[in-house]
Amino acid sequence: MTRVAAVDCGTNSIRLLVADADPATGELVELDRRMIIVRLGQGVDRTGRLAPEALERTFAACREYAAVIKEHGAERIRFVATSASRDAENRAEFVRGVLDILGVEPEVISGDQEAEFSFTGATRELKGRADLAKPYLVVDIGGGSTEFVVGDDQVDGARSVDIGCVRLTERHLVRDGVVVDPPGPEQIAAIRADIEAALDLAEQSVPLREAHTLVGLAGSVTTLSAIAQDLPAYDSVAIHHSRIPYHRVREITEWLLRSTHAEREAVPSMHPGRVDVIAAGALVLLSIMDRIGAEEVVVSEHDILDGIAWSVA
Fold it and tell me: Are 285 and 249 in contact (CB under 8 A)?
């Protein structure tokens, strides 16, 4: 067994997994998994730069994670940064800060690398499941981008496109620094147009409609599962490998789009950092299901973070 630490720093959240990995048996024993919403991608779509306050929130989370990694005695660490870091002019400042705190340089990976890690993390434990037909379409709806990966036991096609819950919210639902609450028909139509254009782009290189099982990853999808199950609090065990039928995804998405901030905030399983961006994320998932004719989505709590951990091991 090798004790590894994997950090996934995205547009909306930064997450840590400390685990014991055994490549010989394919076993990954989770020791500590946590998430902090830092909104690193705040304003990146508009300014092209990481905001000072967003960097400080992220560095504070890194300091917390450094203590956890030291406590568990991880032998190897890999820090992967995704969409917001790829887009930012001042990403060198971000790299220096992480290196100072954690002693490792963050790898600003490509969208294709991100997609491969997501696929590995989500599908490694699905092997042998007779109830889930291959090929899989793994969809990772992040804050700044969404990754599409199609494959059986390995990746056959992957594409990352710039639609994510934070990016779409900031682009279409923010007026004078405040999120439109709830959005009007014009704002919703604008988001839909961006999503459809991105799906057209993804289909140029990934055969989305050939997949037989849709696997959904990341906070927008897991939160939808929690809402669909009417959970009294966020429960990873109940959410992992749950299935949401198409009609429930549509019902919840439509409710989110017409709800107020206060109504969304009152959902017991809703993380405070997702309240203003969940509607855009849900609309991405619904649009994907419409495009490929999916009857349900299989929800996975294991994703890019697990894929990063395996890459370290």
Answer: yes
DSSP codes of every residue in 91-104: HHHHHHHHHHHHSS
**117: pLDDT confidence band, cut at 50, 70 and 90?**
confident
CA distances for 263 relative to 126, 215, 283, angstroms: 36, 28, 18
Tens-place pLDDT, residues 234-270: 998 999 999 999 999 999 999 999 999 999 999 999 9
Q: Is 128 left (phi over 0), alpha (psi -120 to 50) or beta?
A: left
Helix (H) or strand (E) holding 30: strand 27-37
29 closest CA partner among 39, 17, 38, 19: 19
- Using left for φ > 0, alpha for ψ between -120 and 50, and beta otherwise, residue 305 falls in alpha
Pick the range with the lowest mean pLDDT from 20-29, 72-81, 207-216, 229-238: 20-29
Q: Is the pTM of this model over 0.85?
A: no
268 phi and psi angles, rounded to 5 deg: -65, -25
**Which 3 state secondary structure label does DSSP give 176?**
coil
Q: How far apart are the C-alpha atoms of 301 and 221, rounded to whole Å?
A: 9
The mean predicted confidence, pLDDT, of the chain is 90
Give the integer Cα–Cα distance in Å for 93 and 74.
26
Using CA atoms, how far apart are residues 285 and 213, in angstroms rounded to an integer? 14
Q: How many residues does the chain have?
A: 313
| Burial label, 299 (beta-carbon count in 10 A; 0-12, 13-18, 19+) | buried
Please, what is the end-to-end C-alpha distance for the chain in angstroms? 9
